[in-house]
Design a protein that fits this description.
The protein is α+β, with helices and mostly antiparallel strands. The chain has helices at 6-36, 40-53, 74-87, 172-179, 183-190, 227-238, 300-327; strands at 63-65, 71-73, 90-92, 97-101, 110-116, 127-132, 140-143, 149-153, 163-170, 198-206, 209-218, 221-222, 242-243, 250-264, 267-280, 283-297. The strands form 4 sheets. Strands 11, 12, 13, 14, 15 and 16 form a 6-stranded mixed β-sheet that branches. A 5-stranded mixed β-sheet has the order 4-10-9-6-7, with helices on one face. Helix 1 (6-36) packs antiparallel against helix 2 and helix 6 packs parallel to helix 7 (300-327).
Length: 331
Amino acid sequence: LYRLSKRDWAAAQEAKKRKAVAQSKDWYGKALRADEEHRAVEALTYYVKALESTEAYLGEPLEEFDEQGQKHFYGNEVYFRLAETLQGLNVTSEVSKRTMKQGTLQENESLDFVLINESDIPQSGLPVLIKYSEQLSRGTVFTSGESGQVTYPVPVIRTNERTQYIRARFDSERWQQEVTDNRLVRDVLEGLVKKVKETVVELEVLAPTFRVASMESNLGAPLSTPMLASAVRSVLLENGFASDTTNPDYSIHIESDTDSSGVSRNMATCYLRGQMVIKRGVEEIYRTSFHEIKGVQLNYQNAGMAAYREGVDWLTYEVLPLWVDRVRPTR
C-alpha cells in the first residue's frame, strides 16, 4: 500500500489550494471588469463563483503578498468587493408620496421604480421586491428591465387606512437563491442579504366622494324629508365614502313616487315605484328600478310611507352593499 509522506501530502494540498485560488482569481478578475463597466448582474455572479472556487478554504485567511510586500487576505478582498457591489444597489422612485383614491377609481394606476448602483447607473436583470403595506404575502418580485425599470401596478386599495405604503428594494434573498446552491457560500452571503436599502413611497388614500339628489313623492306630493336619499347617504358614509356636493366621484339620482292599489279588509295598499341611477362623471355606471315595494296601512297616506320604509330597507341591505363592494371592495 502506497502512502504519501507528510511532506508530499502537504505539498499536494498546497498545490490543490493554489489551483483553487487561481481559478477563483480568474472569476474575480471577470467580476472586477464587470464592476468597472457597471454590470452588476454579471459582477455579482462572478464574485460568487470566485467564492465557490475556494469553498474548501472559506475558513482560511488565504494570505498573499503584493509587489510591495504588503500582506493582504484574498478571501476577505473578494467578500468586501461583493458586499460593496451588493449593498450599493438601490431602488429609486421619482416620487416619495402619491395621492390615490380608495377603491376602483384608481384601477390601472402604477408606480415606476429604477434599480441603480452606487454610481446611479441603472442595472438590469436583477430581482426587485415590491410590497404594498396591506399585502399579506412577502411581496411581488419583478426583474429589472434594460433601463433598470420596474413598473408596479398598484392594487385596488381596499382598507380605510388613510396612509399606506409601497416598499421597494433589491431582492437579495431571491438573488441569493438563484445565484448559488452552495450551502457554505450561502452562509457567507447570509449577513449581506439583510443589509440592502429600501425605498418607501407613501400613499395618501382619499375616500371616494358622492353626491345624492332625489325627487321623492308620496301619492304625488313631495316628501318633506327624502327617505331614500337619506338612506343612501347614511350607507355610503358608514362605508368610508365622503360627501362632496361640488365635484363628486359618484353622482346618485333617485326618482320615486307611490300609487294606491286598493283597499282590502279595511287596509289600504300602496306600491313604491321609481329608479336610482349612479354616474361617474357623465358616464352611467349603475341603474336599478323598483316597482313592487309594498306598504299596507289604514289609509293610503300611511301605506305610502310604509312602502318607503320598505324601500329604505331594500336599498340599505340588498342594493347598496353589492354596489359598494363592487366599487370599493373591502375583502
